[in-house]
Amino acid sequence: MRIFKILAVIIILLGGAYAASMYYFVDESKNFTIEKEIDYPVEKVFVQFNNLQNFTRWNNFFTSSPSIDIDYYTPYEGQGSAISYVDPKNNTDGEMFIRYENLNKTLKYQLFEDENENPTLVDVKFKPVSAEKTKIIWYVHTPKLSVWKRVENFWTEDRFAENINKSMANLKNSLGNKVEKDNQMAAIKYDSLMVENEEDKLLLGINVSTSNKKDALYKNIVMNYNKVYNFVTMDLGKRDDEFGYPILITDADNYKDKEVSYFLGIPLSKKIGVSDNNFNFRSVNPSQNYVMYYKGNYEGRIRAIQQLIQKAKKDEMRFGDIRQTFIERPMEGQEVNVKLSLSVYK
Question: Which of 172, 204, 214, 308 is the most exposed place for a label (fewest CB within 10 A)?
Answer without folding.
Answer: 214
